[in-house]
Amino acid sequence: MSNLNRLHAINSVAERKILLSSTSTPDVLGHYAEDVFNETAIQKYLSKEVSKKLLRVIAHLEPFDSSIADEVAHGMKTWAMERGATHFTHWFQPLTGKTAEKHDAFLNRSSDGKILMAFSGKNLIVSEPDASSFPSGGLRCTFEARGYTAWDPTSPVFIKRHANGATLLIPTIFCSYNGEVLDKKAPLLRSCQAISKATSKLMTHFGLPEKPVSNSLGAEQEYFLIDKHFYMQRPDLVQTGRTLFGAPPAKHQQLEDHYFGAIKPRILAFMTDVEYELWKLGIPAKTRHNEVAPAQFELAPIYEELNLAIDHNLLTMEVLKQVADRHGLVCLLHEKPFMGINGSGKHNNWTLNYGNKNLLEPGDTPHENAIFLTILCAIIRAIDLHSDILRSATASAGNDHRLGANEAPPAIISIFLGEQLTDIIKQIESGTVTGSKKSTSMLVGVDAIPSLPRDVTDRNRTSPFAFTGNKFEFRAPGSSESCSDANICLNTIIAESIDYISARLEQMDEKDFSSGLQKLLASIITKHKRIIFNGDSYTQEWENEANRRDLPNLKSTPLAIAPLLSETCFKMFEKYNVFSRKELNSRYEVYLSEYKRKINIEGKVALEIARSIVFPVAANEYQKLVSSYEAARKSKIIQGTKGVLATINKIGEALDLLTDHFIPLENALEKDDCVKINTEMNNLRKVVDFLETQVDDSKWPLPKYREMLFIY
Predict the structure, then answer these.
(1) How far is CA 266 from CA 328, 570, 712, in A?
(2) Is residue 600 pLDDT above 80, yes or no?
(3) In 219-264, which ranges are continuous DSSP H helix?
(4) How many C-alpha atoms does 536 have within 13 Å on its Cβ side?
């Protein structure tokens, strides 16, 4: 790597022109969901009877009738080809955490040997990808390759465009020949069924008529953007997604001037293109803004049905990367691409709906509030009993660097309720409910501005699981991960607690229902209130207090995923048919293997950069200074030599330390010792980051933080 490449990259970024959007004033409503086979397309391309049946399936009102598959497939093919599609693929979510697809052309051969364009019901419903090359945790071996993808009709098919054409994508589940799930969508759908059944049963105790139960999700996506010139000069970013080295710049986020600041023109052009692409896919991207860290941003959609929202979030991550490339940028989705500043999360805003009623919305009547408080207590119980399992749903090598650092929630799972709800909870526990603290209005003190309504809760950005008025915001999931794991866990553990309450309500006399319910909720609060914490979760005091409360603090991925193998976890997920014992074992193996591989890759990349890029540059600097010092001494020049000698000694000591750390890191890599690899990488980083501050700036080969974070 030439040392001039970094300086050339800086100049290239400075000279780059803003890529204008292909349409400066997009017709949002005219193009919204134009690449989605939605209700409008269904009614246009399918018969009235088939349309009605398919729409009822999509609305979860009846199972899919395979007799309509051929007509549905033909209508989809016609619609897709009119929009330029030549291929189709089953789009699924293997345990890689990403999506997968295998494209097939609509081409087929008729019985008389002629080539035609065809797409059958069988092509739509099922496909057979190779299952042995995806992570399976031992469920599939190379000689047991058969796997199946099966269409999920509740998530609409869509068209993905590329430079020279388009492909029809069909959302599917992915399972093995023996029926074990190999993906994240199938268990998610199972968990949705579990919480639906549990909630429907609970609502009968409140005398409500049967209605569809659903979850809504709003997944806020955080990400970094850096110029592609810088990215290509950083082998660590290319190979691992994060910087393994980099001295902190004098200015980073300490002035707090980036958050919600004016968006730079180049970034705004990128965001405009991203939103247009998402809108065409029917993804309701609504909010865009600068995040806390420099070069960090956030995109937030309108809430959608949970399964669809997760599909859309996976697509959003893909679109962010593709559009960034068009703009000469690189979108970094790693949880901690830069040390010492904010990492990126995926805030998981979760709600539970009964018909059109959000059950996490406090009601206007005592009956509605009784339901709200019952669901709230079920959630408190679920999070307290299973916080370790919920933590496992956020475990990854990247998230280990983020949780508990720079405005990210800690690895300790707790619930924030806010002043008003906490007051109500305390009253229920005491058995004397006198009423809630009323919400009030705030007087701003400026005549031209009206008084503002005060929400029932403040916001607590430090809490991993916070009630924010009509939803729970789970802030622990990492930015690069699928939302599926977190929501599979939430749905299942909350379903178990709802069933716990239902079973006790069944034993109550109807005449004593109100008093019996209050006593039941009071007992739940007494047993599980330790999980409630409304203070600053970033502090050491809270970590100490959490330890006194005996709350799990699982800081690393190996510790965090261990609860997946607990008997409690096995029994709960088996009870609700979300995972079998065998499937949980396989996931544990997949997650542990992925963690070890990523740490091993990082160690090898760090060693290579330190040895073959940093060491030669630092050694050349050392030699240059030594030659300069010796020349001055020979010329009997004294002035200036003291500073040169001091710098020589500093760089020399650092070079010795650098080489001293090579062997321990090599040994740790050979033994696949992740703890030791992380330790030795940190040791190596301290030396490399120090050398960055000592070596001639024009000779340092790696783009620096001050450049990557501020020049774009």
Answers:
(1) 10, 50, 8
(2) yes
(3) 228-232, 235-240
(4) 5
Residue pair 610/684 in contact (Cβ under 8 Å)? The answer is yes
Considering the segment(s) 191-239+256-440+459-579 as one domain, its CATH architecture is: 2-Layer Sandwich (3.30)
Asked if residue 592 has pLDDT above 70, the reply is yes
Q: Is the dihedral of CA 417, 419, 424, 428 positive or negative?
A: positive
What are the helix and strand counts (H, E) for the chain? 25, 20
**CA 334 – CA 317 distance, rounded (Å):** 11
Query: Whole-angstrom Cα distance, residue 317 to residue 322?
Result: 9
- Name residue 639's amino acid: Q
Query: Residue 4: what pLDDT?
Result: 62
CB 412 within 8 A of CB 555: no
Choose among 395, 380, 310, 391: nearest CA to 569.
391
One-character DSSP codes across 93-148: -BTTSS-B---EESEEE-TTS-EEE---HHHHHEE--BSTTS--TTS--TT--BEE
Give the DSSP H/E element, type plus range, for residue 342. none
Q: How far is CA 139 from CA 285, 369, 396, 618, 712, in A?
A: 38, 46, 21, 49, 46
Residue 441's pLDDT is what?
47
d(CA 695, CA 106): 59
Q: With contact defined as beta carbons under 8 Å apart, do 621 and 655 qualify?
A: no
The DSSP element (H or E) to which 174 belongs, if any, is: strand 165-176
Confirm if 439 and 455 have CB atoms less than 8 A apart: yes
How is the chain split into domains, by residue range? 25-183, 191-239+256-440+459-579, 598-708
| CA triple 457-463-465, angle to 5 deg | 80
Residue written as tokens 């050694």?
619
Report which of 336, 344, 345 is spatially closest to residue 246, judged by C-alpha positions.
Answer: 336
- 356-376, pLDDT tens digit by residue? 999 999 888 888 888 999 999
Return the C-alpha torsion angle 251, 711, 237, 333, nearest 10: 90
Label residue 653 by pLDDT band (50, 70, 90): very high
Tell me the fold of 598-708. Answer: Four Helix Bundle (Hemerythrin (Met), subunit A) (1.20.120)
DSSP-assigned beta bridge partners for residue 223: 297
Q: Are 628 and 602 in contact (CB under 8 A)?
A: no
Count of Cβ atoms closer than 10 Å to residue 98 Cβ: 13
Interval 7-27 mean pLDDT: 72
Q: Render 54-65 in DSSP notation, one character per residue.
A: HHHHHTTSS---
Lowest mean pLDDT among 246-250, 288-292, 423-427, 594-598: 423-427
Instruction: State which CATH number among 3.10.20.70, 3.40.50.2300, 3.30.460.10, 2.40.10.270 fits the domain covering 25-183.
Output: 3.10.20.70
CA angle at residue 480 from 337 to 229, to 5 degrees? 45
- Is there a common fold for 191-239+256-440+459-579 and 598-708? no
Q: Name residue, tokens 């050349």.
A: 620
State residue 23's pLDDT score. 56
Task: Give dist(CA 22, CA 324) in Å, integer.
Answer: 14
3-state SS, residue 379: helix
